[in-house]
Amino acid sequence: MSDSTRRIFFKQVAATGSVLLAGSAMAQAGGLVDEKSAQAVALGYKADTTKVDKAKYPKHTNDQKCTNCQLFAGKPTDAAGGCPLFAGKQVAGPGWCSAWVKKAG
Ligand code: SF4
Predict the structure, then answer these.
(1) Lesser CB count within 10 Å: N end or C end of the chain?
(2) Does residue 48 surpass a pLDDT of 80?
(3) Is the separation of the CB atoms in 60 and 52 below 8 Å?
(4) Which ligand 1 atom minimizes the distance to the CA of 97?
């Protein structure tokens, strides 16, 4: 293998590696939680906190959102992020479920 062939080879390996990494990161992130999934229904999850059933969850207020929940794995400004209650999926930043706990701090 000449020097230039070796350089090209390693460039290709590096490029393939990043594509694979990006792919696995996307697979981990998963899609958005479906409000109609069994887990979402059980937890009263809504992708829009203002759509929460007020009769069923009287303690809910519209300022409670996934982005200010203790369990939200994203940043407060993220449109969506992980939540341990919905493994492999993403919850909407403005979403809510009955397990909401105010983020400390
Ligand atoms: S536990 Fe928190 S972050 Fe997870 S879905 Fe419920 S409100 Fe959103």
Answers:
(1) C
(2) yes
(3) yes
(4) 6
